[in-house]
Task: structure prediction
Amino acid sequence: MKFFLRFLVFGIIAFSSLESKSQKHCGWEIYYEQNKHQAQFIQKIDELNLLNKQVQHTKTGDEYIIPTVIHVIYKNSVENISVAQIESQIRVINEDFRKRNTDTSIVKPGFSIADSKISFCLAQRDPDGNETDGITRTSTQIDNVCALNSTQYYQLAPAWDTDKYLNIWVCDIDGQTAGYAFPPGIVASIKDGVVVDFTNFGTIGSVVPPYDKGRSATHEIGHWLNLSHPWGNANNNSNCTNDDGVSDTPLQDGPVLACPQNRTSCGSPDMLSNFMGFVDDACMANFTEGQKTRMRNALINGRSELITANGCLPVGIKKVSLLETVELYPNPANEKIMLVVPIEIMTKELEISLYNISGKRLSTQTKSVHKGLEIETNTLASGIYFLNIKSKNEQLIKKFIIQH
Ligand code: ZN
Ligand code: CA
Result:
């Protein structure tokens, strides 16, 4: 039935104008066109470009793993996609974002192919800390439950804390749109995530060609991490003035569909293989270094809690305490004792209290500890002492001995 609808819609559009088929792919530009006359919206778009210029990510080597929850909303068994189909999608986004996809040979020489060092896990624990497979399932009788601007899908299947999880709703959009997503801060947190039509999610089961290789999710997560289409946010760029804020994606005059081998616009060859374009799934294969930088800046400046979120950590495994790696030396000590902290908490503020053996507090200091902290101990009598070290969310007691 779905296929018939698509066929019907495509048939009508093809009859009138081939260009209109572009709306089949991504809802972000439709959302942009709907909102571009609102000053507040445009202000936010401008802020997103600033977001990219704020704190530039320096640790290009750090890998970020994003806890991801899939909300399946279905009307029938076809739409209630299998775990295997969901896993096929997780595999694709992990390949695409880590430059592990096997089809990078289709990227034309001279174009950059980046490993974004961003990957995704199906959440292992839910926001309450309970074990989960990272999948929620909700049945509905509503048609087009995930249409752009619908308020239904996120009421039926509420987002998990959008600061700590990537929420992906897989559902029936409208028969024309493969997916949509919002860059950081554009919409209320209750709907801040990615929506992908069940016919375009993963590589097996309910997928329908030519968007059947999992690239819709790759593309939409790109938007969620502040990427635009190479031709900018609007739905065409025939004057070649709109840019995506990324220098190593060439200017392009608008969306390109199907799978052309070569095309030139705005005075240079188009990067048709880019994940942020509209070509068929089998014909896209790369993010660029510039897009990598923009995505990582979005993560660090706009979605920073995702970096430290523990949703990928199986229940039962405690996150390794940073404080547990604090060391005191020498121990036993005489004149002074040194507190050595791991690099991750060097700039964090620590409250350090000194207690004697009978539990009396002798001193407290709050310090941002760089490299280490020296504590004078020459006034302490020989004996056993304790340091109570507190960070924002952990606390640790360390014993040491003074021997004069
Ligand atoms: Zn898009
Ligand atoms: Ca560009």
Observations:
- Confidence is low (pLDDT under 50) at residues 1-23.
- The pocket of calcium ion (ligand 2) is lined by residues 230, 243-244, 246, 249 (CB under 6 Å).
- The longest strand covers residues 64-74.
